[in-house]
Amino acid sequence: MKISVVDARTGKKQLAELDLQAPSLTDLKKAYHQQKRVDPSRQAFYYVDATTGQRGKMIVAAENNGPVADLKDGSVVMFKDLGPQIAWRTVFLTEYFGPILTFPLAYFLAPYIHGEPVQLNNTQMIATVLFMAHFIKREFETLFVHVFGTDTMPIFNIFKNSIYYWGYAYLVAHFTIHPKYQSPSDLQVYIGAAGVVLSMLGNFVCHIILKNLRKPGEKGRKIPRGFLFEYVTCPNYTFEILEWIFFSIMIQSLPCFLYTLSGAGQMLPWAIKKHVALKKLFDGKDGRELYPKNRKVLVPFIF
């Protein structure tokens, strides 16, 4: 069957005509690459909105890489070049690597920045270990736990994300590994440290549950079950936010509270979007599961 490809920016300019039989998204990208020499990682295809004639929904891979829905002989799809791409895993490994070094870096630079070395107290040592452990855990999960829904992201993201993580991490380290740093009470430190460790473990358990949802090669979505997933849609975010709240309490640091608020501000809309999408997908119709009605977004029983 013949499929016309037009420019998504104008909606009119024809870019290619592909001759395919019941193509999967992979087939579509491969055929376009053969004609136009655009790497598949840069390709995005969209349906044409029947009402407006403008760009509609993005065409996504069908389950088990099956044929793209609603394509027939004479169909028109819109194409957008996403620009240079980079692997998600590469971006994550890079953005999480910098923060691992920031606390040791702040310690070794202290004599040059503050004019005197830092005599590490108990709180500063605990903070250093836990901060590094958090990002080492993230590196481990990136390599061995996380399953990425897409292979790549725009290459600019590696710079944007690294500036965010490396910058905030050094800001927290700079004011914590400081000669004039005053530690809060031992009780506050130990409660905060215990909360950090428990939240870190809870977050890891959630990631393992998500990893085991799908078998290798599966693309379909499933309802997560067990642990805190019985109460909220994104308990991994819940534990992540809790971890940074406890860390902020432990070191009693304004920059760390700001980092916590910034992270929570990013995770909240992600969690809401995922919650809405899962409720819409699992509507209990046509044999589909019904998403648990009592499940909240981030906070059990409340929100």
Automatic annotation (TrEMBL):
| Family membership | Belongs to the steroid 5-alpha reductase family.
Supply the InterPro entries for this chain. Answer: 3-oxo-5_a-steroid_4-DH_C, SRD5A/TECR
Q: List locations, semicolon-separated.
A: Membrane
Q: Which GO terms describe its cellular component?
A: membrane
Instruction: List the membrane topology term(s).
Output: Multi-pass membrane protein
GO terms assigned for molecular function: oxidoreductase activity, acting on the CH-CH group of donors
What Pfam families does the record tag this protein with? Answer: Steroid_dh (PF02544)
Query: What UniProt keywords apply to this chain's record, in alphabetical order?
Result: Lipid biosynthesis, Lipid metabolism, Membrane, Oxidoreductase, Transmembrane, Transmembrane helix
Q: Which organism is it from?
A: Naegleria gruberi (Amoeba)
Gene3D superfamilies found in the cross-reference section = 1.20.120.1630
Q: 3-oxo-5-alpha-steroid 4-dehydrogenase C-terminal domain: which residues?
A: 152-303
Query: Which residue ranges run through the membrane?
Result: 163-181, 187-210
Kindly provide the name given to this protein in its UniProt entry: 3-oxo-5-alpha-steroid 4-dehydrogenase family protein
Q: Which GO terms describe its biological process?
A: very long-chain fatty acid biosynthetic process
Domain of life per record: Eukaryota
